[in-house]
Amino acid sequence: MERYDEDLGENSFFQVLRREYVDVLERAVLSGWVICVPRTGALPKYALAKDDIFGHILVPSDELPETHFRTLTDRNVVLNGNVLVLENKVSNPHSVHILFEETFYDDDLRKYKVMCLEDPLYASNAFAPSSCTDLIILHSLRDCIDLLWTEGGGGKALEKLDFLVNQFLLRHQALEEEGLQNLRDLGSELFSEAIQVTLSEPRLGEKTKKDQYLLDAVKLAVETYVLHGVYKPLMKGIAACKAEDDARLNRVIKNLSDLQVRDLDIDPQLLCNLTKAKSELASIEGHTTPLGKLGCLKRAISLVAVPGTIFSSDELLPTLLFLVVKANLANWYAHVAFLKLFRFSASSSDSGEQSFNISSLEAAIEHLYSGSLFGSTTPEADSVLQPGCMTTPVLKSMEEALGCSGVDPMARFFECIRLGKVEDVKDILDGKYKPFQKEIESEPSLVEADAQLCHPLCSCDRCEKLMSKPKKDIMPTVHTREERGYTGLHVACIFGRPAIVDMLITLGADLHATDFRGATPLHYAAQRGHQNAVLLLLHAGADINKCDGDSNTPLHLCSLNGHVACVKALLFYAESIGCDIAINAQNNVLDTPLHLASRWGYSAIMELLLDRIVILGLELNVYNNRKLTALDCAHNRHIARLILDAKVRKDELESYVRIDLNFKVPTDAPHEKKLDFNKHTENSKVHKNINCRDDTNRLKHIEKLLKSVKVGDVKLACFYLGIEEKTTHSDAVSPKTLCHPLCQCSKCAPNIHLNQESSETFNTMSINACNSDGYSALHEAVINDHLHLANVLLSHGADPNLQTFNRRLTPLHIAAQNCNLETMQSLLVHGAQVNLQDICGNTALHNCCAKGFDQGVMLLLEWKATKDVSNLSDNTPAQEAEKRGHWHIVEIIFGKPVSY
Amino acid sequence: MCAAAAAAGAGGTRSYNFKIVLLGEGCVGKTSLVLRYVEDKFNDRHITTLQASFLTKRINLSGKRVNLAIWDTAGQERFHALGPIYYRESHGAVLVYDITDEDSFQKVKNWVRELRRMLGNDICLVIAGNKIDMEKERHVSLEEAEAYAQEVGAFHFQTSAKQNKGVEELFIELTRRMLDNAVTNDQQRINSLTRGGNTRNLQIIDDQANLPSQKSSCCSA
């Protein structure tokens, strides 16, 4: 029910007219008269007089047939928009709203026009009581409550609906975890129950049977009221279902933050109201019902349309696109899904204006999501937007701003950088750029331009022209800035030209040059997702924590724009180099990068940031200037879950570290004692390891390493240790054999890896580093049965004879305990001592015997394990086996059948 | 509620709600065409704010109440992929080309192909050759266009939004055909129906049967 509707065939006024005034109708058809019909609810009660009818027949005037009429009772009527104004001689003019127009055709396609009016235009008996009821129009939740109150027996219906809503919320407490279809089914069930309850009110039930319009209104009111009641959990559920789509859309939107109207070819005439329309559209988030949200959408659209122009779909769609980008909302998909699926009062085949508006919004969002926005408008965008390479698209407006057409050396310089023409840029900087030289040669007069002025201050046309020509002897350098304060390095970072970034850095470009916004090249590289450029700048020594004019660090910018690769680059670089990256840095609205990633739903970035926050023991509950934590900013439960999990992990780790720290002082002392216990241990090694434990930072790093080993992440572990994954060393190719410094072709890629590792001074951990309990990476790998990882560690010199501090376990003990034959073999091959004892005096052989692991026993015996070592309980391996009834083991040890 | 109708109050006649989608390249005069029909205006200086992307028109054809919701689409080529969002569940489509622009006629052919593929014969098509006031610059011959329309089971109209030629006829004819479609659909539903669902898919299959009759009606038009 968007607009008033009634069947005029049922309207008694129209019936009388058609029955008794056939001749008038005939004239109306022939002369184009317009017939007005008051709506059924507003008809006078008395029998209609001739004047009543004639007062509603409009005869178009000769001069302005579209807007000026005379009634058959000779009164002037003016049409103004959708209002008819009846001019009175004495009193004020009487205006009446037109509800709708209907064109009637007969079988011969002859037609006449009928306007249905909200109130009668003229009543012959003005004092007669009329049956007039106010026309119900629902605009807001308030209107709906009013309707339900007045029609539903003074609050009874509302009470029943409240009860239903509460019951529903109680029954479905896990609403946020339902699927979309389920949510819709539940909502629709609630809606039908609510309608039933409302119509069970006898008076309303009777009334709606007769009045289709009222029934529609009641349906809408009930839908609005009920959905308002369940909105919060419902919307959370929808947001969770649409989380992925929304995150992807947010990435696109955030990366289009520079979008300008001319990028979309929007008529500049429409500009004036865009800001208002934008805030109107943004308020869609605050409305809790389809009615309210649709109202927003409609108002936003009508705000854009400027009086005096025709606002067609050709303009509507780009404008909506623009508004969606600018409205700063985090879950468009969820809102559209809500509007599409939860308008229960609208018929399934609804094709009215609301439905059109929703479709237009959906179309705008789909277009953004598809990323095809700049596919055709800028040819260069194709090369930048390669599949898989998610960087910020280049907007037309930006290209234009960077002066494309230039004979001016400055413009040419920046254009060459933008287009990635390495050679040309180099030539320009060296002063060898051919086009410039040619121009100079062809116009030799220019060189001595000054001399040729009529007089030093002359401003005649010829001299003006000479003066305005750029001086060719001013050649751009790496420090040259264009009008927004960009240096060449800025531009190269904006457009992602790593080769040029590399060259400019070597030529001594200023890494910390700031543009007018206070942003450094690193800010732009991070913001626009150019990982290569980010790494190049970092390696060259760019400040990772530098703030721009809005106090955003590079980490803020890539978190905001959803560039996972750049977040990774920043975090891992900071970690490997050991510099402090301000993960919880706050910008000028006190948002941390975590706030931004949480608000826009980038789960991958969330994981990276949280991981680092947990490990470094940073604060999770940072408040921004609206007193919100990152958790409060989360728009769906997936993101919220990540933060909550991180909290748990952090608490666990903190309690763990605290115990460790308390424990640290005493552990050193008893250790020395324990060494006496094991005569064969190489003391020096243990000492070295103990020394490693000194600072807590180091401990945390080790925890991270062990964690990566625990989950079997070979790559990460190798990264932490600064080693290669390969178990055997391949011939290291010298870095110089790369095709070019940044080549990533299949031939060069592995070499780059090497190259990086050799060139970076990785502050990596010793491969035998162990945590506070003395567990090394090798221990962890063996415990968790990661054979490949264990082999990698061993081939890089991990010591297979390290013993843990408390239980004095070697990896071999653990492997024996776990019955890992292959691991045991590896360990032994790499020099594991076969007879080391743990704190209970057990050797690996003891363990195998106790487990009844016959293959292990045989393997150990092959490696000359001593059979007669007694543990602290005074048992030899054979005795252990015997105790547990592993007779076959006993046989193996003694090499002959045993009699019992 | 079924595809095309909502029964008005007790004993009232049925009223039909039809969705018409307007397709065609930019600049062929889609918007002008629909504005001429609904508001009887053409680039009028008197136009106050006009939201022309969505317009409604109520007509009463020999006692049948019909509510037309006319959805304009963006004509720019880069928005082509968004077509389905607009044309899904529509009962009729007006495909507009500019008789002075051969390319725009090719675009119409593309749309016809796409609509037939996505919506089958469930949708009534009307092809409009607009701008016949510029007959001198005609690049699409009438014979070719009419032959094509007949081949794909669509009407063909020559229109001029500027001179108000053929516009009303076009929409009336389209409405008639959508009415025929709806009536036969209702008939078939009543014949085959035991439960009241609104599965459009079923109807598509059913419609194959009365395709020939539709074709003949279009040829006579």
UniProtKB/TrEMBL annotation, chain A:
Sequence ranges assigned to domain VPS9 in this UniProt record: 243-377
MF terms in GO: guanyl-nucleotide exchange factor activity; SNARE binding
One of the record's GO cellular component terms: tubular endosome
Coiled-coil annotated residue ranges, if any: none
Keyword Flavoprotein: no
Top-level taxonomic group: Eukaryota
GO biological process: early endosome to late endosome transport; neuron projection morphogenesis
Entry protein name: VPS9 domain-containing protein
Organism: Cherax quadricarinatus
Automatic annotation (TrEMBL), chain B:
Predominant location category: membrane
Membrane topology label: Lipid-anchor
Database matches in PROSITE patterns: RAB, RAS, RHO
Highest taxon above the source species: Eukaryota
Cellular compartment(s): Endomembrane system
Record-linked CDD domains: Rab21
Keyword Zinc: no
Key words, A-Z: GTP-binding, Lipoprotein, Membrane, Nucleotide-binding, Prenylation, Protein transport, Transport
GO CC annotation: endomembrane system
GO molecular function: GTP binding; GTPase activity
GO terms of biological process kind: protein transport; Rab protein signal transduction
The keyword Lipoprotein belongs to this UniProt entry's keyword annotation: yes
Listed name of the protein: Ras-related protein Rab-21
Species in which this protein is naturally found: Cherax quadricarinatus
Organismal lineage: Eukaryota, Metazoa, Ecdysozoa, Arthropoda, Crustacea
